[in-house]
Automatic annotation (TrEMBL):
This is Multidrug ABC transporter permease. The chain crosses the membrane at residues 20-39, 51-73, 94-116, 128-150, 157-177, 213-232. Its main location: membrane. Keywords: Membrane, Transmembrane, Transmembrane helix. It is found in: Membrane. It comes from Saccharopolyspora karakumensis. Pfam families: ABC2_membrane_3. The keyword Lipoprotein does not apply. It is a multi-pass membrane protein. The keyword Transmembrane helix applies. InterPro entries: ABC2_TM (IPR013525), Nod_factor_ABC_transporter (IPR051784).
């Protein structure tokens, strides 16, 4: 049952046009653009510094924005209510959606990792395994935030709010520009946002072959636990 539910959820994400735009087209376009256009003071090859931020963007797009919008409209059309009345246990419904999100993130990572070497990407090989763990942690943290937004508000509000938050985290969260290049206090705030924390941690392991440090891990855990605990109390099936 879990395998069947995971397969359905994955196909629903992959076949959706807006989801494909968020999960693949925008990250690939930004990876190429930010690696070839000289914006900001980055060491060469620029793609080494850009790739961790694009991976964080891909996770945010799939686990937060995509899941929030999908959940909001699933509630509107009664999908969750009908599924909850079937023989599928609730843990299967939740686990299937989580595993589907992780599979799509894995697909994004593979596609981006296959594109980046053509731009000169040379990651620290010792950081690949920790990088996978960070992608999983980031997916869970952003997924909890997506459930929080998509599980309590009207679909129209979810659509506007999720996209607005996506842009805020892109610009102010250390993804469009490195946190050090952001003006004033934004450079400090970025490290306490989930997008900035994930980008910083991925940069440490993939670029500098170092441990990510305690702060970004604690920031991701704090956001995930806080959003998840709140979502448990506020999420409605309809």
């Amino acid at each position: 049952m879990l395998a069947a539910q995971t397969r359905i959820e994955t196909l629903l994400i992959v076949r959706h046009g807006e989801q494909a735009l968020l999960t693949l087209l925008i990250p690939i376009a930004l990876l190429i653009g930010m690696s070839t256009i000289h914006i900001g003071d980055l060491p060469e090859p620029r793609v080494n510094s850009v790739m961790p931020r694009i991976l964080a963007l891909a996770v945010m797009s799939t686990a937060f924005t995509g899941q929030a919008i999908a959940l909001g409209f699933d509630r509107r059309y009664g999908v969750l209510k009908r599924l909850s009345a079937t023989a599928l246990p609730r843990w299967t419904l939740i686990s299937g959606r989580v595993l589907a999100t992780l599979l799509v993130v894995a697909l994004q990572a593979v596609v981006l990792s296959a594109t980046a070497p053509f731009l000169g990407w040379s990651p620290a090989l010792t950081g690949l395994l920790p990088g996978i763990g960070l992608l999983v942690l980031g997916t869970l943290a952003f997924g909890a935030a997506g459930v929080l937004v998509g599980g309590a508000l009207r679909p129209e509000i979810v659509l506007a709010l999720a996209n607005a938050i996506w842009f805020v985290l892109l610009l102010a969260g250390g993804l469009a520009l490195p946190a050090d290049d952001l003006p004033g206090p934004l450079s400090v705030i970025a490290g306490f946002l989930p997008s900035g924390a994930l980008a910083e941690a991925l940069d440490a392991v993939l670029v500098h072959s170092a441990l990510p440090g305690a702060q970004p891990i604690l920031v991701l855990l704090a956001w995930g636990l806080a959003c998840g605990a709140t979502a448990l109390r506020t999420t409605r099936l309809t």
